[in-house]
Fold this protein.
Amino acid sequence: MRRGWLSLGCVVLLVILGWAQTYGPGEIYYGGIRLQFSGRVLVAGTCSPAVQPAPGISQIQCQVPEGVAGTIELTATRTPAGAVNIRVESVPSGWPNSLWIQQLGQWVDSRSLVASGWGTVQAQYRFTPPAGGAGRRGGVGRGAA
């Protein structure tokens, strides 16, 4: 069995300074596997519409005020059913490294654990840009093993 990440590339880039935007549904195919993804970003401020710079990649850029909380909601579905993972790809210094995992009903440290499931996985990344974070970028990624 081939192991590794099938990159969903549902990467949300944040330009720190606000928004509420939906991305997806999107899907990619690889070796007979279909991976569907969708989500939304909930935060005060402004966001650009989702763009696809490459197949299977959705990007949203938002201006998020420092000190204002926001949430990125993520859903990934694999067909045929198989392992699906959602993980924090990268975050600016001072941002949280944890995901709320719907199936577990708890927060997990994404540096050591990813949101994993079979078939469909849902997760939330909650953040508050810290003071001095203007201009920094971060992303959340999804993949199938």
User: Anything to note?
Assistant: The chain has a mean pLDDT of 68. Residues 92 and 138 are 6 Å apart (CA to CA). The chain has one domain: 9-144. The chain is about 0% helix and 55% strand.
